[in-house]
Write a structure and sequence with these properties.
The chain is 29% helix and 22% strand. It contains 8 helices and 17 strands. The strands form 3 sheets. Strands 5, 6, 7, 8, 9, 10, 11 and 14 form an 8-stranded mixed beta sheet that branches. Strands 1, 2, 3, 4, 15, 16 and 17 form a 7-stranded mixed beta sheet that branches. Strands 12-13 form a two-stranded antiparallel sheet. A hairpin with a 7-residue loop joins strand 6 and strand 7 (193-200). Helix 1 (4-21) runs antiparallel to helix 2 (23-45). The longest helix is centred in the N-terminal third of the chain and has 23 residues, at 23-45.
Length: 382
């Protein structure tokens, strides 16, 4: 196809010839050609990324906020810590190229969400340290700067490291306002629980991001370690709601258990019943947005032989089910599984990044992320 310069030259020559013979027809033809050229220009220059319906603003107006929880799969940095005896930490620490690739893949995966802008609040599990999140933030912001979302850069990192087990922890990356001095780990023996405080339009959202013990390290039939994590999360939620019954609280992350398991049903006191959450006061309940997931894919993680599990959850308190401050539409919760994040054949499971012995295409993570759309009221109320 000729470019617009070639089309311009042809149009000028035709116009000159026609104008000499038929001035009126020449004007009509020039008008038609002008419309054609305008259409061609718009088609070739129109932005390929789509804007989300609404997004966070700084003008105090109501806004939509996309929250994501994603197990990033072994997100270690490129500096080998001699105090950490972990195969994946050692491998990334001696392979800076792989760390760079991991960062770029995660950035690419996150920017598949929200029409190309990425989630407004990203809760990531299996993060070694703040340096990992800084590298990811910079990679995201470089891509955003070159897009139509140059004004949507990520500005805040919330993170508290963990020196137990595999030495990774949850972290939060956001473009919204935060109360940095309120970021904390829960003061107990379960270290992979992070509490962050997000602010928009004068309203506070408490996000508790957690990574409960895996089924590899906790092989007990009753999953007592995961139950312990669940009780710690619930204890903190209950303390927050004791002070403010309608506080907006999200508990999310990789729980390594499903809705049916004791850790969620008994420890975290989740339910699938919206009204049960709204009416619970003394013993507050949480709504598990993935209690009975039945969409495609069938779960957030795949263990082979057509075995899917929903291990990644987003749970909300009653405050998010009203129309004041922050609110949540449970129908918007989904497992985000864009084609790029999936294997091309078979069960179409997550295309993981993998380790030192991985062959073939490196992907993103061995988990799919989960997302939900939140709304925040305007600065002067709904």
């Amino acid at each position: 196809m000729a470019d617009h310069r070639s089309l311009n030259r042809q149009a000028e020559q035709a116009a000159i010839r026609l104008a000499m013979r038929h001035p009126r027809q020449a004007l009509i033809l020039l008008g038609v050609l002008g419309l054609v050229l305008l259409g061609y220009y718009l088609w070739t220059h129109w932005p390929r990324s789509q804007h989300p319906t609404t997004g966070p603003t700084v003008d105090g107006k109501p806004a939509a906020v996309l929250l994501c929880a994603w197990n990033a799969e072994n997100f270690f940095d490129d500096q080998d810590d001699p105090n950490v005896h972990d195969e994946m930490e050692d491998w990334f620490g001696s392979n800076p190229v792989m760390f760079r690739a991991k960062v770029d893949h995660l950035a690419e995966g996150l920017l598949l969400m929200n029409g190309g802008a990425g989630p407004d609040v990203a809760c990531l599990c299996e993060v070694e340290n703040e340096r990992c999140l800084e590298a990811l933030r910079d990679a995201l912001n470089a891509r955003l700067a070159a897009s139509v979302f140059a004004d949507r850069k990520y500005t805040h990192i919330l993170f508290k490291g963990d020196k137990t087990g595999r030495h990774f922890a949850p972290g939060i990356l956001t473009r919204l306002g935060v109360f940095t001095d309120r970021t904390r780990k829960l003061n107990n023996h379960n270290g992979r629980i992070l509490e962050g405080h997000i602010e928009q339009n004068g309203y506070e959202l408490v996000v508790i991001a957690a990574h409960w013990t895996s089924r590899v390290s906790d092989k007990s039939d009753d999953g007592h370690r995961r139950l312990s994590y669940a009780k710690d999360c619930y204890g903190r939620v209950k303390a927050i709601l004791r002070e403010e019954p309608d506080a907006d609280v999200v508990v999310c992350g990789d729980f390594n258990d499903e809705f049916k398991d004791e850790s969620l049903r008994v420890g975290l006191k989740v339910t699938e019943n919206v009204e049960a959450v709204r009416s619970s006061i003394d013993e507050p309940r949480l709504l598990d947005l993935f209690a009975h997931w039945s969409g495609d894919p069938k779960g957030t993680i795949y263990s082979g032989r057509n075995k899917w599990s929903v291990f990644d959850h987003i749970c909300v308190t009653r405050g998010l089910l009203d129309d004041k401050g922050w609110s949540c539409d449970p129908t918007t919760a989904k497992i985000f599984a864009a084609d790029e994040l999936r294997r091309r054949s078979g069960a179409r499971e997550p295309l993981k990044f993998g380790g030192r012995n991985e062959s073939g295409t490196r992907g993103y993570s061995d988990h799919f992320p989960v997302t939900v759309q939140l709304q925040v009221a305007g600065a002067n109320g709904p």
